[in-house]
User: Fold this.
Amino acid sequence: MAIDFSFTEEQEMLRQEIRRFAEERILPGVRERDRGHTFPADLLREAGELGLLGMLVEERYGGTGFDPLSYCLAVEEISRICPSIGVTMSVSNSVCCWPIARFGSEEIKRQFLPELASGRKLGGFCLTEAGSGSDAGAMLTSARRDGDDYVLDGAKVWITNASVAGTFVVMAKTDGAAGKRGISAFVVDAASPGIQIGQPEEKLGLRASVTAAVTFTDCRVPARQLLGVENAGFKIALATLDHSRLGIAAQAVGIHQRALELAVAYAKERVQFDVPIASHQAIQFQLARMATELAASRVLLWYAAVSEKASSAGRLAAEAKAYASEAANRAVWDALQIHGGNGCSEEYEIARLYRDVRVTTIYEGTSEMQRLVIARHLLTS
Assistant:
């Protein structure tokens, strides 16, 4: 299949507009928000006004209806400056708006999507539990039918946007004996009685995003807020993760791009043995590898984005996520090494990126799970 990676005029304009927004509005307070673990609610409202929180939602539901490649370009540009805002944006778009738009009834779409797409509310995705990370079928959260409602009981952990979300997509067992085939998906108003948000996690990185546990106790959810049909939640979760891996790959590409920029600038400025360290072949080789792997990550990501409706979409997204996240980790490692001792100081941006990038090989499916997805596609095709 021939792929044309040239951008449309609309895509190029979008990229430039978001880059300006990121550099002019987001960049000035990045360090302070990271140090203070401060969630940038005002900047998320601005992002909503720009249409960045409804990029995958049709215009009739209040979204901007962009294609997946445009969405990836937007996440990359935001994440290049602030990965915390990048993941907040990605989660609300990819694992909340997207499954509602893809699997929700007309009533659910009209009830929930307009506020999410406008940024008046953020979204979250409640899948992971203390005893079930990669093994989603082991979840314990239950949903029992009671008249016109389902009653949810259980606890989810590591939920991005937990305390700031207005809407959750929640996975729960409606058939406890059926394993992963007994999981259903629900759209839940975060203000529903019976929902308790835990204390924010003290994370290694992404400190300006909010992550916490979410507990459901006799939480009643109208039956009309079931996504798809009962016991189809595992398939919905897999499809959602296949899609959302594009956003995490784009986040990794943005971090990788920034690490390369910082490394190049520092190598030109730092003088050792009477010459800039950029004059040394060892440094040049590091920079060359970073640039080459960045180009490879982008091609994998863009190919996966434009192939989202192909039968190989899940494999391509897994390849992009696994490669881009690991390449970004290598790039940030090399960039910090180029900075030498200064790279270990929080006065230098690379120290924050070193903390922020690490989780990209873990969330939305670990690198090991991506390789299982890739292998299964290859062996069953």
User: Anything to note?
Assistant: The chain has eleven helices and ten strands. Residues 235-380 form a domain with the Butyryl-CoA Dehydrogenase, subunit A; domain 3 fold (CATH 1.20.140.10).
